[in-house]
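We now fix the convention by which a protein and its fold are recorded. The integers have meaning only within a learned vocabulary of local backbone shapes. A complete example follows; check for yourself that the lines match position by position.
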Amino acid sequence: MLDLNLDDDVPVVKKTLKVKRPRFDASLVYLTRKFMDLVKRAPDGVLDLNDVATALGVQKRRVYDITSVLDGIDLIQKRSKNHIQWVVKLSQGQILTYR
């Protein structure tokens, strides 16, 4: 058996990372899906990013990661400092979906 103690008087302490939720729950894919759920329910597709961060339980930086990509592919636009709007116009009968 391998002894990891470098000094007999000082035991080795193993630290474990405490995860509050499963890793998938914090992934950008999961958060983007939850973000899209919020967009679908938002009046006129306008969201306050502070409210989004609170609703998703993440730092605002993670919300910016999502909005940056969606803005880059012209699905949303910035309305003000903390507000975005979904800009893709759907014709009648079309629904907003994601996989």
